[in-house]
Write a structure and sequence with these properties.
about 110 residues; mainly alpha; 3 helices; about 90% helix
Amino acid sequence: MSLAVMIILGIAGAALFATALIAIWRIVAGPSQLDRSIAADLMVAVVIASVGIWIIGTRSDTELGILLLLSMFGFTGAVGISRMVSDRLVQRRQYDRLQNDRKRGQ
C-alpha cells in the first residue's frame, strides 16, 4: 500500500475517533432522548466507516458481511428515530388542538 493511502487512512481514522468521542459525549450528556438516539445512530455510522477503513487497510473482503449487517441496523435505527419524532409531532398537534378548543369553549 502506498504512503499516500496510509496517510489518508490515518487521517480518516483520527477523524472517526474524534467523531466517536463527540457522539459518546452526546449520549452521556445529551439533554433529550432524541439527542441520545441520534448520537447512537451516529456511532453506528462511525463503526460502519471504521470497518470500511479496516477493509481498505487490510485488502480483505471477508468483513463485507459485517458491513452489510451494520448498514441494515443503522437504517432501521434511523427509521425508528424518524417514526418516534413524527409520532411526537402528531401527539403534540392533537394536544395543542385540544387546548385551543378548550380555550374557545370558555
